[in-house]
Amino acid sequence: MKIKIKIIISLLICFAAIILGIGLGSIYISPADIFSILAYKLFSAPKSANISENYIAIVWNLRLPRTLLAFIVGGALAVSGTVMQSVLRNPLASSYTLGVSSGASVGAAFVIVTGFSIPILGIFTLPFVGLLAGLLTVYVAVKFAARMDTKMENNTIILVGMVFSLFINAILTLIMSISKEHLAQLTFWQLGSFSLKEWTDIAVLFPIVLVGITLIMRYTKEMDILTFGEEQAFSMGIDVSKLKWLLLGLAAALTGSAISFVGVIGFIDLIAPHVVRRIFGSAHSIVIPMSMLFGGAFMVICDLIARTIISPSELPVGAITALVGAPFFAYIYFSKRKVQ
Amino acid sequence: MINLKNVSASYSGINVLSGISLSVKDGENLCIVGPNGCGKTTLIKAIAGLIPSGGTITIDGKNTCKMQRAEIGKQIAVMSQISNIYFSYTVYETVLLGRYLHMKDNTFKKPSKKDLEYTESCLDAVGLSQLKNQQISSLSGGQLQRVYLARTLAQEPRIILLDEPTNHLDLRHQAGLIDFLKQWSQDKKHTVIGVLHDLNLAMRLADDILVLDNGKIAAYGKATKVISTDLLNKVYEMDVVEFMTDSLKRWEGFADNHYYANKLRIIK
Which positions 154-173 of B are in contact with A (Cβ < 8 Å)? Predict the structure, then answer.
């Protein structure tokens, strides 16, 4: 199948996933009503008489921001995973390998347990501190790896990242065992959720993700070359250490900012790049945007399942990404391999 | 012309290369031989600028220390050895990556018409045009080595550096690769500097031979003038000539009444 057709199909799937995400729930809202409400809100078009204010509130205030946020978070995590795997030349690498989630979790735990608040940030104190702690963990881990090994070999980075991650996880476990009154809140944050998300969350997160992915898109050729080895990249005129710092930093910022808003959601950053590479090949100029679309659509579907399967209760979306993702990933990865 | 003057290199404070001075003219090839651990790969890496080194390396009189990485990349290309492929690209995509430095300044780093045509010509040169849409993960070792050769050529370098490029290749592909490189350097008046373990292949490719021993030059110059039985025996710590004649004799039994038998008689 030609790549353009594959891209068009992917866009249609994303569109369908978003419409399903908005339409399905305890109250069903048809696609026609959704379009009518969107036209009414965005372009002040006249709305159908049968659409109640209640429907408008559900779509505009609850489901649309939640679905869009899920799409943005899924896209950011998937792109971040792609970059990590390519830069570290390791198909099992992800931002979590370098301790982003552990760092962000400790940052979030600090805010939850102490009630610390930065006046100017208000409710965004938690995501801000989470992001900062996540980035700081990656910075310290990579800096430490660079000190140990001036060539910044991938194995050193991964090993140091994992050691840091485990160390910080241990701190988190200590915090959780000491402050039992916050245990439920901390656990809930660690499992990830899109509930009660609003437009303001999107207004803050979207620009960060947009800038991050745009910057990453500038280095797709370099990432292609890097997958053939660092010496090869260096001999082709690429400043490998500088590029690694930049790309690892951007990937960590994407994951850090995403999980700071919705909690830790794993698996998507691991599977998205593999699925996309199976379908679209390895060229990063295609893999990065397609990972964003796949990750976004996949997260919207997972969130839809998480909030509807035992409605009115909600399941943690992090569990759903793994439950749905593992068999899907196995099907895509191994069925293609069998054919080859 | 590439010149090395008193080049040295060390790992963790231990000298692995010292006092290397040589010069390779355009259109000539140099092969570096010597036992394991004598500094062959280190020398290739030092020339490519992959590791810090002492002394001076100049290309047409210009010190490589004063050149930008991209500038060096347009002059010197390093042909990779076959290694693990983590993420598979098509043959065409892989070879096109060799044009990176030429398309780096284009809008969105898009390949120009010249880049696309040059890529096609490199694929043609190594006989891979038919396989250009195939994934490199599905290729044999010989085919993959040709892809890497095409990518190296796509870089449009004046000097190609090779580090044991015939690893993983069968006899036909070994000879094919060496002959191709020799022809390339003659036709374009460019240079190949290669590390080769196989002395026969080294003699086939080289105009000059550099024999390294313990990081120092044991011999350097025209092969016929500098290679001697004593030198080889000393450097490799074995009777090299005895080994080679013994290897040749082993073919007599197999090749009786055969094309090769006649060849061997002529050699004797």
Answer: 155
pTM of the model: 0.86
Looking at residue B13, its amino acid is: G
Question: What stretch of H or E contains B124?
Answer: helix B113-125
- pLDDT value at residue A257: 87
Taking CB atoms within 8 Å and a gap of at least 24, the contacts of A15-19 are A17/A71, A17/A296, A17/A297, A17/A300, A17/A301, A18/A67, A18/A68, A18/A71, A18/A297, A18/A300
Contact A103/A136 with Cβ under 8 angstroms?
yes
Contact A305, A291 (CB under 8 A): no
| A111-166 residue pLDDT tens | 888 888 888 887 788 888 888 888 898 889 888 888 888 777 888 888 898 898 89
Structure tokens at B218: 């044991």
Integer Cα distance of A207 and A205 in angstroms: 6
ipTM value for the complex: 0.83
Could you tell me if B153 lies within 8 Å of chain A, comparing CB atoms? Answer: no
B88 touches chain A (CB under 8 A): yes
Of B69, B80, B89, the CB nearest to A229: B80
Our CA-based measurement puts residue A107 at a distance from the nearest CA of chain B, in whole angstroms, of 34
Contacts of A303 (CB under 8 A, 6+ apart): A21, A66, A67, A70, A194, A317, A320
* Contact residues on chain B for A237, CB-CB shorter than 8 A: 68-74, 100-101, 104
In this structure, what token pair is assigned to residue B32? 């570096």
Question: What span, in angstroms and rounded, lies between the C-alpha atoms of A26 and A331?
Answer: 31
C-beta of residue B126 within 8 angstroms of C-beta of residue B146: yes
- Tell me whether B31 touches chain A (CB under 8 Å): no
